[in-house]
Sequence to fold (315 residues):
Amino acid sequence: MDRQIERLRIEEDNYYVQDVRRFEAYKDMIQEEVQEDKRECFEFAYNMSYAKIGAHRDSRSGGTIHRTLGQIFINTFQGKMAEFALYRYLKNHQIDVKKPDVTEYGLGKWDSFDLECQGKYFAVKSTKFYGNLLLLETKDWSDNGEYVPNSSSGTVKYDYIVLVRLKPDGEELMRQNRLLYQREDEVPDDIKELLMEKICGEEWSYDFPGFIYHSELVKAIEERCVIPQNAMLNGKTKMDADNYYFQAGNMHPMREIYIRNINEKIDERASLRLKRKCPNCGKTLVLRHGPYSWFWGCEGYFGRPRCEYKETLRD
Ligand SMILES: [Zn+2]
Fold:
């Protein structure tokens, strides 16, 4: 069922988050894969910014602030890292998914950061590790929740919009190293090595506060759940554009992407759940109820040859 959208606390021009979820680094990662993903995201972000391969937008769609190469680099890097994080999460849960695209696209297309899986579409949004909001610029979404920048080509309707939090805070790292607001004529020749050391050299982790369904985005649009441009967020950040918002503590937990709520009688989201694959034989995993509890079992349990793969229910 769609959730009731929890509103921010508003005092004049100040907006405060109410419904938080604590950052908890996702642990089920293979270190070599993390390293490999990081390198790929790095190359992609570097090519999209400093190397000037592929076109880029120098301001976000609704915003008025001009973005530097440093900002474009780090935003692209973090956005791609978030996409890889979701990819690894799905793979770890025995869900078939293609690796994210790291080819350089033209204007606008690259920064929608999406994944396709079993005919369903994911938009992936990244935020800082202490962030508790999924923010969607109002200008980017039509009244029925279609993604406007992709309207001529590409995905317009996302079944799920997933929030991913990243640690450390990339913009802060860039700022500390005086790379964030650098003008183009100040960029040193060894910028790539520098970024490799300062950004890629960090240990990155992430978590998944949750996701929303397309219908909930439509609801947020109808109900005008918006933080307006120039409003102050949590007394610290001035908003540079109008944004629809969802609070981290008010989103669906990730496991809902593949597990129905076992207590629900009527499951209206059944068609949106992803199918898991048995790591043993490749058949579908199904939820079964044993004498004491629910578990995942292989569809091939009654087949020939019989597959007895089983796993306990967990996040
Ligand atoms: Zn099996």
